[in-house]
Amino acid sequence: MQTLLLNASDVRENARMPAVIRAVEDAFAAYQRGDTQMPAKSYIDLPQYDGDFRSMPAYMAVRGGTLAAGGREEADTREAEEWDAAGIKWVNVHTDNVAEHDLPTVLGTMIYSDPRNAFPLAIMDGTTLTRLRTGAAAAVATDHLAVRDARSLGIVGAGVQSYTQLEGIACVRDIEEVVVSDVRGEAVAKFVARYEDEFDVRGGSIEEAAACDVLSTVTPVEEPIVPRDALGEHTHVNAMGADAPDKHEHADETLLDAKLVIDDYEQCTHSGEINVPWSAGRLDDGDLYGELGEVVTGETPGREPDDGITLFDSTGLAIQDIAAAHVVYGHADENDNGYPFDLVDTEVR
User: Fold this and answer.
1) Which CATH fold topology does 131-316 show?
2) pLDDT in tens, 315-346
3) Enzyme catalytic residues
4) pLDDT in tens, 27-69
5) Element (H, E) at 139
6) Is 242 exposed, middle or buried (0-12, 13-18, 19+ CB in 10 A)?
7) 3-129+319-341 is classed CATH 3.30.1780.10
8) Domains 3-129+319-341 and 131-316 share a fold
């Protein structure tokens, strides 16, 4: 047996966003049904380098079962596929990487293993994988929580994560207009140039982005930058930027007013968008509507006719990485992509 080495290009080629979205939705359902093992994300803080490492192991088993319909016109309940997988992602956030080392802020490596015998089926680029599964998670939340006829998408933060936000959300809603906001004009210009042939896309203010039908925020800020009164009456918000203590993108008033859906209780209260007001006692259990897994499985309704603002607090779960890796490895193996090599000495002694 050989291990498959998959670089960033291999991951992109073999990760079709619709398939990743379905697998991530299956992962949330498996999590809700208790068919996962996911130890808490562990951190190694390196303040001397303005960075940290994070270890994210997980096992998940998709056992089938009906999933709730999303908001697409053609959506219907569907049966999840049946498969299981295990792996671990070693990932970092080093805020000075771009300026000082000409490297991405986030780097990751995924080891994807066969749970039957622990053989490492693949080692793949986890940086691209992280971007893909983050966009897919926003898409799953948007599908279940945004208005059906959403046509406009606002994005605050024009970094690398912004691209898969648009690519994922455009799979579940017929997005026509895109407004992207960032203090870095060159980042906005690059984003607009990338998508100007596919969407009506332009740069704009945070307030203009926030007024869209769907808003994704992908910034590392520690002081809220999206005011409550800038949001549209029925805007769905994907709060994707907060993934460590003290990060906070949205006004507390928004979190108190919104139908608030989280990805994981422990992670969100520790390091998600809600972590700052939670620690200060301004939010508590009574302010949480539920977890996305409950919505995906239909145990808790998604968007309802009388809903105003909805908000998804995403910290990123290891099961999402496993789900995306499952898609990438399966396609790469079928298509003979990547570089197979002998990592493990399989001779039994």
Assistant:
1) Rossmann fold (3.40.50)
2) 999 999 999 999 999 999 999 999 999 999 88
3) 89
4) 999 999 999 999 988 889 999 999 999 999 999 999 877 798 8
5) helix 126-145
6) buried
7) yes
8) no
